[in-house]
Amino acid sequence: MSILKYLGTSRHKLFAAGKYPKVLSFSTFHTTPNSSVELHSQEEEIVIALGSNVGDRLHNFKEALKLMKNSGINITRHACLYETAPAYVTDQPRFINSAVRAVTKLGPHELLSTLKRIEKDLGRTDGIRYGPRPIDLDILFYGKYKVRSDILTVPHERIWERPFVMAPLMDLLGSAIDNDTVAAWHSFSGHSGGLSGLWEDLGSETLIGEEGMYRVIPVANGLLDWSKRTSVMGILNVTPDSFSDGGNFLSVESAVSQVRLMISEGADMIDIGAQSTRPMASRISVEEELGRLIPILEAVVSMPEVEGKLISVDTFYSEVALEAVSNGAHLINDVSAGQLDSNMFKVMADLDVPYVAMHMRGDPSTMQNSENLKYDNVCKEISSELYSRVREAEMSGIPAWRIITDPGIGFSKKTEHNLEILLGLPDIRKEIGTRSLSISHAPMLIGPSRKRFLGEICPRPAAERDPATIASVTAGVLGGANIVRVHNVKDNLDAVKLCDAILRQKSSHMKSRH
Q1: What angle do CA 307, 233, 346 make, to 5 degrees?
Q2: Is 242 helix (H, G, I), strand (E, B) or coil?
Q3: Which of these is catalytic: 133, 309, 451, 465?
Protein backbone atom coordinates (compact mmCIF):
# COMPACT_ATOMS: atom_id res chain seq x y z
CA MET A 1 0.00 0.00 0.00
CA SER A 2 1.21 3.48 -0.82
CA ILE A 3 0.04 6.76 0.62
CA LEU A 4 0.74 9.96 -1.34
CA LYS A 5 0.09 13.16 0.55
CA TYR A 6 -0.15 16.35 -1.49
CA LEU A 7 0.79 19.74 -0.11
CA GLY A 8 -1.54 22.10 -1.97
CA THR A 9 -0.50 25.68 -1.47
CA SER A 10 -3.02 27.14 -3.90
CA ARG A 11 -6.21 25.43 -2.64
CA HIS A 12 -5.42 24.71 0.99
CA LYS A 13 -5.18 27.26 3.74
CA LEU A 14 -1.65 27.73 5.05
CA PHE A 15 -0.09 29.36 8.04
CA ALA A 16 3.49 30.57 8.32
CA ALA A 17 6.18 29.13 10.54
CA GLY A 18 9.02 31.54 10.07
CA LYS A 19 9.04 32.07 6.29
CA TYR A 20 7.82 28.62 5.24
CA PRO A 21 4.28 27.23 5.07
CA LYS A 22 2.97 24.29 7.07
CA VAL A 23 0.09 22.09 6.04
CA LEU A 24 -3.40 22.19 7.58
CA SER A 25 -4.88 19.55 5.26
CA PHE A 26 -3.76 17.02 2.65
CA SER A 27 -5.15 15.46 -0.47
CA THR A 28 -4.44 11.74 -0.17
CA PHE A 29 -4.10 9.03 -2.82
CA HIS A 30 -3.92 5.31 -2.09
CA THR A 31 -2.07 3.08 -4.57
CA THR A 32 0.08 0.01 -4.61
CA PRO A 33 3.68 0.25 -5.85
CA ASN A 34 2.71 -1.67 -8.99
CA SER A 35 -0.43 0.33 -9.66
CA SER A 36 -0.83 2.19 -12.93
CA VAL A 37 -2.96 4.76 -11.11
CA GLU A 38 -0.16 7.21 -10.59
CA LEU A 39 0.44 10.85 -11.39
CA HIS A 40 0.83 10.88 -15.17
CA SER A 41 -1.36 13.86 -16.02
CA GLN A 42 1.11 16.59 -15.22
CA GLU A 43 4.82 17.15 -14.83
CA GLU A 44 6.15 17.09 -11.31
CA GLU A 45 9.35 18.73 -10.15
CA ILE A 46 11.68 16.29 -8.45
CA VAL A 47 15.11 16.11 -6.82
CA ILE A 48 17.40 13.12 -7.33
CA ALA A 49 20.65 12.59 -5.44
CA LEU A 50 23.62 10.93 -7.16
CA GLY A 51 26.56 9.10 -5.66
CA SER A 52 29.38 6.91 -6.99
CA ASN A 53 32.56 5.36 -5.60
CA VAL A 54 33.30 2.44 -7.95
CA GLY A 55 34.93 2.64 -11.38
CA ASP A 56 35.07 5.89 -13.35
CA ARG A 57 32.87 7.93 -11.06
CA LEU A 58 32.42 10.90 -13.39
CA HIS A 59 31.61 8.64 -16.32
CA ASN A 60 29.02 6.90 -14.16
CA PHE A 61 27.41 10.28 -13.44
CA LYS A 62 27.43 11.26 -17.11
CA GLU A 63 25.84 7.99 -18.20
CA ALA A 64 23.25 8.17 -15.43
CA LEU A 65 22.23 11.68 -16.50
CA LYS A 66 22.00 10.57 -20.13
CA LEU A 67 19.84 7.55 -19.26
CA MET A 68 17.63 9.70 -17.05
CA LYS A 69 17.05 12.12 -19.91
CA ASN A 70 16.22 9.25 -22.25
CA SER A 71 13.72 7.90 -19.70
CA GLY A 72 11.53 10.98 -19.41
CA ILE A 73 13.43 12.72 -16.61
CA ASN A 74 14.28 16.19 -17.91
CA ILE A 75 17.05 17.74 -15.85
CA THR A 76 16.77 21.48 -15.20
CA ARG A 77 19.45 22.16 -12.58
CA HIS A 78 22.64 20.58 -11.30
CA ALA A 79 24.24 20.95 -7.90
CA CYS A 80 27.96 21.35 -7.35
CA LEU A 81 30.12 18.25 -7.25
CA TYR A 82 31.46 16.98 -3.92
CA GLU A 83 34.08 14.40 -3.06
CA THR A 84 33.16 12.88 0.28
CA ALA A 85 34.37 10.33 2.76
CA PRO A 86 32.17 7.22 2.94
CA ALA A 87 29.49 7.16 5.62
CA TYR A 88 28.24 4.25 7.74
CA VAL A 89 30.57 1.72 6.05
CA THR A 90 33.89 3.55 6.11
CA ASP A 91 36.24 0.91 4.66
CA GLN A 92 35.58 1.74 1.01
CA PRO A 93 36.68 4.30 -1.61
CA ARG A 94 35.68 7.96 -1.47
CA PHE A 95 32.44 9.01 -3.14
CA ILE A 96 31.51 11.80 -5.45
CA ASN A 97 28.07 13.22 -4.69
CA SER A 98 25.73 15.66 -6.32
CA ALA A 99 22.03 16.15 -7.04
CA VAL A 100 19.78 17.35 -9.84
CA ARG A 101 16.41 19.02 -10.13
CA ALA A 102 14.24 17.69 -12.91
CA VAL A 103 10.67 17.44 -14.17
CA THR A 104 8.92 14.22 -15.09
CA LYS A 105 5.49 12.77 -15.83
CA LEU A 106 6.52 9.47 -14.29
CA GLY A 107 4.64 8.56 -11.14
CA PRO A 108 6.74 8.10 -8.00
CA HIS A 109 6.95 4.30 -8.24
CA GLU A 110 7.52 4.44 -11.98
CA LEU A 111 10.33 6.88 -11.25
CA LEU A 112 11.78 4.54 -8.64
CA SER A 113 11.66 1.61 -11.08
CA THR A 114 13.34 3.72 -13.76
CA LEU A 115 16.16 4.75 -11.44
CA LYS A 116 16.67 1.16 -10.28
CA ARG A 117 16.92 0.05 -13.90
CA ILE A 118 19.52 2.76 -14.61
CA GLU A 119 21.53 1.64 -11.57
CA LYS A 120 21.44 -1.94 -12.83
CA ASP A 121 22.40 -0.89 -16.37
CA LEU A 122 25.45 0.87 -14.94
CA GLY A 123 26.61 -2.20 -13.08
CA ARG A 124 25.09 -1.90 -9.64
CA THR A 125 24.36 -5.21 -7.95
CA ASP A 126 22.89 -6.16 -4.61
CA GLY A 127 25.56 -5.77 -1.97
CA ILE A 128 25.99 -4.62 1.57
CA ARG A 129 23.87 -1.64 2.57
CA TYR A 130 25.80 1.63 2.27
CA GLY A 131 28.61 -0.29 0.59
CA PRO A 132 30.53 0.44 -2.63
CA ARG A 133 28.48 1.12 -5.74
CA PRO A 134 29.08 2.43 -9.27
CA ILE A 135 25.96 4.59 -9.03
CA ASP A 136 23.38 5.41 -6.40
CA LEU A 137 20.22 7.32 -7.37
CA ASP A 138 17.83 8.41 -4.60
CA ILE A 139 14.57 10.35 -4.88
CA LEU A 140 14.79 13.19 -2.37
CA PHE A 141 11.59 15.03 -3.32
CA TYR A 142 8.65 14.34 -5.61
CA GLY A 143 6.55 17.44 -6.31
CA LYS A 144 4.58 18.56 -3.27
CA TYR A 145 3.92 14.95 -2.28
CA LYS A 146 4.87 12.81 0.64
CA VAL A 147 5.09 9.16 -0.42
CA ARG A 148 4.98 6.21 1.97
CA SER A 149 5.05 2.60 0.77
CA ASP A 150 6.85 -0.63 1.47
CA ILE A 151 9.51 0.27 -1.13
CA LEU A 152 9.56 4.08 -1.27
CA THR A 153 9.66 6.93 1.21
CA VAL A 154 9.69 10.52 -0.04
CA PRO A 155 11.10 12.83 1.20
CA HIS A 156 14.04 10.48 1.60
CA GLU A 157 14.08 9.63 5.29
CA ARG A 158 17.80 10.30 5.89
CA ILE A 159 18.19 13.60 4.07
CA TRP A 160 18.33 15.61 7.23
CA GLU A 161 21.28 13.80 8.84
CA ARG A 162 23.58 13.65 5.81
CA PRO A 163 25.76 16.67 4.96
CA PHE A 164 26.79 14.96 1.70
CA VAL A 165 23.12 15.05 0.68
CA MET A 166 22.17 18.39 2.19
CA ALA A 167 25.05 20.29 0.55
CA PRO A 168 24.08 19.43 -3.05
CA LEU A 169 20.38 19.76 -2.18
CA MET A 170 20.92 23.33 -0.99
CA ASP A 171 22.91 24.05 -4.16
CA LEU A 172 19.78 23.33 -6.20
CA LEU A 173 17.83 26.04 -4.43
CA GLY A 174 18.25 29.78 -4.51
CA SER A 175 18.24 31.81 -1.34
CA ALA A 176 14.88 33.09 -2.61
CA ILE A 177 12.01 30.59 -2.93
CA ASP A 178 11.14 30.40 -6.62
CA ASN A 179 7.88 28.43 -6.55
CA ASP A 180 5.30 26.67 -4.36
CA THR A 181 6.97 23.29 -4.82
CA VAL A 182 10.22 24.57 -3.35
CA ALA A 183 8.22 26.11 -0.50
CA ALA A 184 6.79 22.65 0.16
CA TRP A 185 10.26 21.11 0.24
CA HIS A 186 11.30 23.65 2.87
CA SER A 187 8.18 22.82 4.87
CA PHE A 188 8.90 19.08 4.76
CA SER A 189 12.11 19.70 6.72
CA GLY A 190 10.07 20.41 9.86
CA HIS A 191 12.44 23.25 10.70
CA SER A 192 11.08 26.75 11.30
CA GLY A 193 13.80 28.06 9.02
CA GLY A 194 13.12 25.46 6.34
CA LEU A 195 15.94 23.60 4.62
CA SER A 196 18.16 26.66 4.97
CA GLY A 197 17.76 26.64 8.74
CA LEU A 198 18.40 22.92 8.91
CA TRP A 199 21.54 23.29 6.79
CA GLU A 200 22.71 26.12 9.01
CA ASP A 201 22.25 23.95 12.10
CA LEU A 202 24.34 21.20 10.50
CA GLY A 203 27.17 23.70 9.95
CA SER A 204 26.44 24.82 6.37
CA GLU A 205 29.49 26.19 4.56
CA THR A 206 31.82 25.46 7.48
CA LEU A 207 31.44 21.76 6.60
CA ILE A 208 32.95 22.24 3.15
CA GLY A 209 36.60 21.32 3.39
CA GLU A 210 35.89 19.63 6.72
CA GLU A 211 34.37 16.29 7.67
CA GLY A 212 35.91 14.75 4.58
CA MET A 213 33.70 16.76 2.18
CA TYR A 214 35.17 18.93 -0.58
CA ARG A 215 33.52 20.95 -3.34
CA VAL A 216 35.39 20.11 -6.55
CA ILE A 217 35.43 20.67 -10.28
CA PRO A 218 36.39 17.79 -12.61
CA VAL A 219 39.33 18.66 -14.85
CA ALA A 220 42.19 16.79 -16.54
CA ASN A 221 41.10 13.36 -15.25
CA GLY A 222 41.12 14.63 -11.69
CA LEU A 223 39.17 16.71 -9.20
CA LEU A 224 40.26 20.25 -8.36
CA ASP A 225 39.35 21.68 -4.96
CA TRP A 226 39.58 25.37 -5.84
CA SER A 227 38.86 26.48 -2.27
CA LYS A 228 42.28 25.41 -0.98
CA ARG A 229 44.13 28.23 -2.72
CA THR A 230 43.75 30.72 -5.53
CA SER A 231 44.96 29.50 -8.92
CA VAL A 232 47.13 31.68 -11.15
CA MET A 233 46.44 31.51 -14.88
CA GLY A 234 49.25 32.80 -17.09
CA ILE A 235 48.27 34.53 -20.33
CA LEU A 236 49.76 33.46 -23.66
CA ASN A 237 48.48 35.56 -26.55
CA VAL A 238 49.54 34.12 -29.90
CA THR A 239 48.10 37.08 -31.77
CA PRO A 240 49.63 39.99 -33.67
CA ASP A 241 47.21 42.56 -32.19
CA SER A 242 46.58 41.93 -28.47
CA PHE A 243 46.70 45.14 -26.45
CA SER A 244 49.63 44.21 -24.17
CA ASP A 245 51.84 41.61 -25.85
CA GLY A 246 50.52 41.29 -29.40
CA GLY A 247 53.14 39.90 -31.77
CA ASN A 248 55.51 38.72 -29.04
CA PHE A 249 54.68 35.01 -29.16
CA LEU A 250 53.67 34.18 -32.70
CA SER A 251 56.29 31.49 -33.27
CA VAL A 252 56.20 28.09 -31.63
CA GLU A 253 59.64 28.68 -30.14
CA SER A 254 58.76 32.01 -28.51
CA ALA A 255 55.45 30.66 -27.23
CA VAL A 256 57.07 27.58 -25.67
CA SER A 257 59.73 29.77 -24.08
CA GLN A 258 57.06 32.02 -22.52
CA VAL A 259 55.12 29.03 -21.21
CA ARG A 260 58.28 27.62 -19.68
CA LEU A 261 58.91 30.96 -17.95
CA MET A 262 55.37 31.24 -16.57
CA ILE A 263 55.45 27.68 -15.26
CA SER A 264 58.83 28.26 -13.62
CA GLU A 265 57.30 31.31 -11.91
CA GLY A 266 54.45 29.23 -10.48
CA ALA A 267 51.56 29.32 -12.96
CA ASP A 268 48.88 26.71 -12.30
CA MET A 269 47.23 27.20 -15.69
CA ILE A 270 48.17 28.58 -19.10
CA ASP A 271 45.46 30.34 -21.13
CA ILE A 272 46.24 30.38 -24.86
CA GLY A 273 44.41 32.88 -27.00
CA ALA A 274 44.71 33.02 -30.80
CA GLN A 275 42.15 35.76 -31.40
CA SER A 276 42.38 39.22 -29.89
CA THR A 277 39.35 40.36 -27.88
CA ARG A 278 40.64 43.85 -27.14
CA PRO A 279 38.17 46.71 -27.75
CA MET A 280 37.53 47.27 -31.48
CA ALA A 281 39.36 44.08 -32.46
CA SER A 282 38.36 42.68 -35.85
CA ARG A 283 37.07 39.14 -35.82
CA ILE A 284 39.10 36.49 -37.62
CA SER A 285 37.75 33.25 -39.06
CA VAL A 286 37.72 29.85 -37.40
CA GLU A 287 40.33 28.67 -39.90
CA GLU A 288 42.72 31.53 -39.15
CA GLU A 289 42.33 31.09 -35.41
CA LEU A 290 43.01 27.37 -35.65
CA GLY A 291 46.02 28.04 -37.87
CA ARG A 292 47.55 30.19 -35.14
CA LEU A 293 46.48 28.00 -32.23
CA ILE A 294 47.01 24.34 -33.06
CA PRO A 295 50.79 24.27 -33.77
CA ILE A 296 51.46 26.13 -30.52
CA LEU A 297 48.94 24.10 -28.50
CA GLU A 298 50.48 20.85 -29.74
CA ALA A 299 53.94 22.06 -28.74
CA VAL A 300 52.80 23.28 -25.33
CA VAL A 301 50.96 20.10 -24.30
CA SER A 302 54.03 18.03 -25.21
CA MET A 303 56.32 20.03 -22.89
CA PRO A 304 57.49 17.99 -19.88
CA GLU A 305 57.06 21.10 -17.72
CA VAL A 306 53.28 21.23 -18.25
CA GLU A 307 52.65 17.90 -16.54
CA GLY A 308 50.27 18.62 -13.68
CA LYS A 309 49.35 22.03 -15.13
CA LEU A 310 46.10 22.96 -16.84
CA ILE A 311 45.92 24.25 -20.40
CA SER A 312 43.05 26.57 -21.24
CA VAL A 313 42.09 27.88 -24.68
CA ASP A 314 40.49 31.31 -24.98
CA THR A 315 37.94 31.15 -27.80
CA PHE A 316 34.31 31.96 -28.58
CA TYR A 317 34.16 29.57 -31.54
CA SER A 318 32.70 26.10 -30.88
CA GLU A 319 34.78 24.57 -33.69
CA VAL A 320 37.95 25.93 -32.12
CA ALA A 321 36.86 24.63 -28.70
CA LEU A 322 36.30 21.17 -30.15
CA GLU A 323 39.68 21.07 -31.88
CA ALA A 324 41.44 22.50 -28.83
CA VAL A 325 40.11 19.80 -26.51
CA SER A 326 40.91 17.14 -29.12
CA ASN A 327 44.49 18.44 -29.07
CA GLY A 328 44.93 18.40 -25.30
CA ALA A 329 43.27 21.52 -23.84
CA HIS A 330 41.76 20.96 -20.39
CA LEU A 331 39.26 23.83 -20.32
CA ILE A 332 37.64 26.44 -22.57
CA ASN A 333 37.53 30.15 -21.74
CA ASP A 334 34.71 31.89 -23.66
CA VAL A 335 34.52 35.69 -23.34
CA SER A 336 31.03 35.66 -24.85
CA ALA A 337 29.43 32.94 -22.68
CA GLY A 338 28.02 31.38 -25.84
CA GLN A 339 26.60 34.56 -27.35
CA LEU A 340 28.91 34.65 -30.39
CA ASP A 341 28.43 31.03 -31.46
CA SER A 342 25.02 29.38 -31.10
CA ASN A 343 26.63 25.92 -31.14
CA MET A 344 29.01 26.56 -28.25
CA PHE A 345 26.80 25.19 -25.47
CA LYS A 346 25.88 22.08 -27.43
CA VAL A 347 29.55 21.36 -28.18
CA MET A 348 30.64 22.03 -24.61
CA ALA A 349 27.93 19.74 -23.24
CA ASP A 350 29.67 16.83 -25.00
CA LEU A 351 33.28 17.78 -24.23
CA ASP A 352 33.41 17.02 -20.48
CA VAL A 353 35.78 19.90 -19.69
CA PRO A 354 35.24 23.01 -17.55
CA TYR A 355 33.73 26.03 -19.29
CA VAL A 356 34.49 29.63 -18.34
CA ALA A 357 31.43 31.79 -19.02
CA MET A 358 32.28 35.50 -19.01
CA HIS A 359 29.96 38.49 -18.93
CA MET A 360 30.11 40.74 -21.97
CA ARG A 361 27.60 42.79 -23.90
CA GLY A 362 27.94 42.81 -27.67
CA ASP A 363 31.23 41.64 -29.13
CA PRO A 364 34.78 43.07 -28.97
CA SER A 365 34.00 45.54 -31.76
CA THR A 366 30.84 46.88 -30.09
CA MET A 367 31.25 46.18 -26.38
CA GLN A 368 32.47 49.69 -25.54
CA ASN A 369 29.71 51.58 -27.35
CA SER A 370 27.44 53.85 -25.35
CA GLU A 371 24.50 51.43 -25.29
CA ASN A 372 26.55 48.56 -23.91
CA LEU A 373 28.05 50.78 -21.20
CA LYS A 374 24.71 51.70 -19.63
CA TYR A 375 24.20 50.26 -16.15
CA ASP A 376 21.98 51.32 -13.28
CA ASN A 377 23.53 48.82 -10.87
CA VAL A 378 26.52 47.18 -12.51
CA CYS A 379 26.98 44.25 -10.11
CA LYS A 380 23.28 43.41 -10.06
CA GLU A 381 22.99 43.59 -13.85
CA ILE A 382 26.15 41.53 -14.39
CA SER A 383 24.75 38.91 -12.02
CA SER A 384 21.43 38.78 -13.85
CA GLU A 385 22.89 38.71 -17.36
CA LEU A 386 25.66 36.25 -16.52
CA TYR A 387 23.24 33.96 -14.71
CA SER A 388 20.91 33.94 -17.73
CA ARG A 389 23.81 32.74 -19.92
CA VAL A 390 24.87 30.10 -17.41
CA ARG A 391 21.27 28.98 -17.02
CA GLU A 392 21.04 28.45 -20.78
CA ALA A 393 24.33 26.56 -20.70
CA GLU A 394 23.01 24.31 -17.95
CA MET A 395 19.74 23.67 -19.79
CA SER A 396 21.86 22.74 -22.83
CA GLY A 397 23.54 19.99 -20.84
CA ILE A 398 26.60 21.62 -19.25
CA PRO A 399 26.42 20.64 -15.56
CA ALA A 400 26.87 23.43 -13.04
CA TRP A 401 29.84 21.50 -11.64
CA ARG A 402 31.78 22.22 -14.86
CA ILE A 403 31.07 25.97 -14.99
CA ILE A 404 33.45 28.77 -14.00
CA THR A 405 32.10 32.33 -13.95
CA ASP A 406 33.87 35.56 -14.90
CA PRO A 407 32.30 39.02 -14.37
CA GLY A 408 34.18 40.35 -17.39
CA ILE A 409 36.42 43.14 -16.13
CA GLY A 410 37.20 45.44 -19.05
CA PHE A 411 34.52 44.01 -21.34
CA SER A 412 31.61 46.43 -21.89
CA LYS A 413 32.64 48.25 -18.72
CA LYS A 414 33.84 51.77 -17.88
CA THR A 415 36.58 52.36 -15.32
CA GLU A 416 34.06 52.94 -12.53
CA HIS A 417 32.26 49.73 -13.48
CA ASN A 418 35.48 47.73 -13.20
CA LEU A 419 36.12 49.20 -9.77
CA GLU A 420 32.57 48.32 -8.72
CA ILE A 421 33.20 44.73 -9.81
CA LEU A 422 36.41 44.46 -7.78
CA LEU A 423 34.57 45.90 -4.80
CA GLY A 424 31.41 43.88 -5.38
CA LEU A 425 32.45 40.29 -6.10
CA PRO A 426 30.64 39.09 -2.93
CA ASP A 427 27.54 40.98 -4.07
CA ILE A 428 27.68 39.31 -7.50
CA ARG A 429 27.84 35.89 -5.86
CA LYS A 430 25.03 36.77 -3.47
CA GLU A 431 22.78 38.06 -6.25
CA ILE A 432 23.37 34.93 -8.35
CA GLY A 433 22.71 32.91 -5.20
CA THR A 434 19.15 34.20 -4.97
CA ARG A 435 18.48 32.11 -8.08
CA SER A 436 21.00 29.28 -7.82
CA LEU A 437 23.35 28.56 -4.97
CA SER A 438 25.25 26.07 -7.14
CA ILE A 439 26.20 28.79 -9.64
CA SER A 440 27.01 31.22 -6.83
CA HIS A 441 29.43 28.60 -5.45
CA ALA A 442 31.12 28.06 -8.83
CA PRO A 443 34.80 29.06 -9.14
CA MET A 444 35.11 32.72 -10.16
CA LEU A 445 37.83 33.95 -12.51
CA ILE A 446 38.91 37.58 -12.87
CA GLY A 447 41.17 39.07 -15.53
CA PRO A 448 42.17 42.68 -14.75
CA SER A 449 45.75 42.29 -15.96
CA ARG A 450 47.23 45.44 -17.55
CA LYS A 451 43.81 46.61 -18.75
CA ARG A 452 42.95 50.12 -19.85
CA PHE A 453 41.09 51.09 -16.67
CA LEU A 454 44.33 50.58 -14.72
CA GLY A 455 46.09 52.95 -17.13
CA GLU A 456 43.37 55.54 -16.65
CA ILE A 457 43.88 55.46 -12.89
CA CYS A 458 47.68 55.07 -12.99
CA PRO A 459 48.75 56.69 -16.29
CA ARG A 460 51.16 54.13 -17.68
CA PRO A 461 51.39 52.09 -20.88
CA ALA A 462 50.11 48.50 -20.77
CA ALA A 463 53.54 46.94 -20.21
CA GLU A 464 54.04 49.07 -17.06
CA ARG A 465 50.73 48.26 -15.35
CA ASP A 466 51.86 45.25 -13.33
CA PRO A 467 51.86 47.08 -9.95
CA ALA A 468 48.28 48.23 -10.58
CA THR A 469 47.40 44.70 -11.70
CA ILE A 470 48.76 43.32 -8.42
CA ALA A 471 46.59 45.76 -6.48
CA SER A 472 43.47 44.78 -8.42
CA VAL A 473 44.26 41.06 -8.08
CA THR A 474 44.66 41.55 -4.33
CA ALA A 475 41.25 43.23 -4.10
CA GLY A 476 39.70 40.49 -6.22
CA VAL A 477 41.13 37.55 -4.27
CA LEU A 478 40.13 39.08 -0.95
CA GLY A 479 36.67 39.52 -2.46
CA GLY A 480 36.37 35.86 -3.37
CA ALA A 481 38.01 35.33 -6.78
CA ASN A 482 39.35 31.79 -7.17
CA ILE A 483 41.37 32.14 -10.39
CA VAL A 484 43.35 35.19 -11.54
CA ARG A 485 44.36 35.56 -15.18
CA VAL A 486 47.58 37.59 -15.47
CA HIS A 487 50.54 38.39 -17.72
CA ASN A 488 53.10 38.65 -14.90
CA VAL A 489 52.87 35.38 -12.99
CA LYS A 490 55.74 35.85 -10.55
CA ASP A 491 54.67 39.07 -8.86
CA ASN A 492 50.96 38.31 -8.89
CA LEU A 493 51.60 34.90 -7.35
CA ASP A 494 53.24 36.59 -4.36
CA ALA A 495 50.15 38.77 -3.92
CA VAL A 496 47.88 35.73 -4.23
CA LYS A 497 49.83 33.79 -1.60
CA LEU A 498 49.49 36.64 0.88
CA CYS A 499 45.78 36.98 0.19
CA ASP A 500 45.27 33.24 0.66
CA ALA A 501 47.08 33.38 4.00
CA ILE A 502 44.83 36.24 5.12
CA LEU A 503 41.71 34.34 4.05
CA ARG A 504 42.83 31.18 5.87
CA GLN A 505 43.31 33.21 9.01
CA LYS A 506 39.86 34.73 8.60
CA SER A 507 38.30 31.29 8.02
CA SER A 508 40.00 29.92 11.11
CA HIS A 509 38.49 32.69 13.23
CA MET A 510 35.03 32.11 11.77
CA LYS A 511 35.12 28.35 12.37
CA SER A 512 36.29 28.80 15.95
CA ARG A 513 33.38 31.16 16.61
CA HIS A 514 30.92 28.74 14.97
Answers
A1: 85
A2: coil
A3: 451
